[in-house]
Design brief:
The protein is of the alpha+beta class. It is about 50% helix and about 20% strand.
């Protein structure tokens, strides 16, 4: 992937984290901090969904989000949000905040780490949260 594309993806990922922390602050939660292992797991899942044309928390082989997070070296997986089709951080956060299950993950004050992945060819988004 070209360096320019990677920089654009990183900017979008950072913006999602900012928006998550704005929502959490409004709900009385502390901010989440980015963990590179969670980011690795989230990026890997977004890319895998795009490359193999599926949309699920589990890979076609049945590997769940918690196993992917542990495989990336993070010991305490918490939750995962996925989305597809939204072409901006604001759009994907709006969609997640309108979904009760996704919103619950974002506003879970016990979760304190995050990794965000995006694959822009199909706009596949992943948020991986940890304790």
């Amino acid at each position: 992937m070209p360096a320019q594309a990677l920089a654009a993806d990183a900017g979008q990922q950072n913006r999602v984290v900012e928006l998550v922390n704005q929502q959490r602050a409004g709900a009385g939660c502390g901010p989440v901090k980015v963990d590179k292992r969670l980011t690795q797991a989230a990026n890997g899942h977004s890319s895998d969904m795009a490359n193999r044309n599926y949309f699920s928390h589990d890979t076609p082989e049945g590997v769940s989000f918690d196993k992917r997070i542990k495989n990336a070296g993070y010991p305490s997986p918490g939750a995962e949000n996925i989305a597809a089709g939204q072409s901006s951080p604001e759009q994907v956060m709006n969609a997640w905040m309108k979904s009760p299950g996704h919103k619950k993950n974002i506003l879970n004050c016990k979760l304190n780490k995050i990794g965000v992945g995006v694959e822009t060819s199909g706009w596949n988004w992943t948020q991986d949260f940890g304790y």
